[in-house]
Amino acid sequence: xxxxxxxxxxxxxxxxxxxxxxxxxxxxxxxxxxxxxxxxxxxxxxxxxxxxxxxxxxxxxxxxxxxxxxxxxxxxxxxxxxxxxxxxxxxxxxxxxxxxxxxxxxxxxxxxxxxxxxxxxxxxxxxxxxxxxxxxxxxxxxxxxxxxxxxxxxxxxxxxxxxxxxxxxxxxxxxxxxxxxxxxxxxxxxxxxxxxxxxxxxxxxxxxxxxxxxxxxxxxxxxxxxxxxxxxxxxxxxxxxxxxxxxxxxxxxxxxxxxxxxxxxxxxxxxxxxxxxxxxxxxxxxxxxxxxxxxxxxxxxxxxxxxxxxxxxxxxxxxxxxxxxxxxxxxxxxxxxxxxxxxxxxxxxxxxxx
Length: 354
Known about the structure:
By secondary structure, this protein is α/β, with parallel strands linked by helices. It has one domain (about 1-345). Helix content is about 35%, strand content about 15%. It is built from 14 helices and 10 strands. It has helices at about 1-15, 25-40, 60-65, 75-80, 90-100, 115-120, 120-125, 140-150, 160-165, 185-200, 225-235, 285-295, 310-320, 340-345, and strands at about 50, 55-60, 105-110, 155, 215-220, 240-250, 255, 270, 300, 330-335. The strands form 3 sheets. Strands 4-3-10-8-9 form a 5-stranded parallel beta sheet. A 3-stranded antiparallel beta sheet has the order 5-6-7, covered by helices on one side. Strand 6 (about 240-250) and strand 7 form a beta hairpin. Helix 1 packs antiparallel against helix 2. The longest helix has 16 residues, at about 1-15. The chain is globular, with a radius of gyration of 20 Å.
């Protein structure tokens, strides 16, 4: 019944936008192919899904692609893990934004677009896009929740077009790779640059003491989680990706120093899921890139998982342990995977800062 309803929703959207949208037919093909992939998933038994052109997709990514709209009453149909009243992400995000605003802190909400949205050839194959100069957004449902949140006062940084338009650099860097669900250091650098451009416009920015940071791009073989899951499930080992990594260090009189990611005096907090912490062992997580772009360190309150709730709980615990923690804070960056909208198992729990 669920997939039947999703096909109907997709067909209705296609009929509405076909005349005005030159990519409507391709979006319909993308959705149909995503549903075919979803039909192959064995629940609770399989993570690695074989996509096209060498991509190994996560079952959560595929679930996200087939979800359709995930705000309002539709969220209850899409995310059947939590109680129905906690399925819609909008009230929790809007409530969090309001609580921060009451304390003089701005929220930047950053949902990270999923790999198949930025590389739709992972679902449809590259031949479909061979004659195209640009890659279209074939899964516009994220923009629906972005618009809904913005209409209620939330500052959302939608990176979809940035990542689509710059998904591969002239230097051979890519924002995603077939073996790994997390975005790459190149993708993180693009995101940090966009966030920093917003923050640098704030009247308080110039007064923040600045530091000098150094960067160096290196190449590493990376056999990501999806290739490892695939090998575990099939016994077949795949060759690693060659990933370009930007390492960031603090420059001091004694030489370069690795960044401390716990900086309670910083005016900027980074919180979220593993999209903010991954690549940290290479000095290339989101806080490293933000420090390089901003010229000062940020304070990280992220968690490996639990991007919807646990990271907010971390902030509240910190506030209760240190009542003046938010006194010098100006910005909170809440960054998480877009598929959190469809797979938050506890839903989006209202969390009070009192």
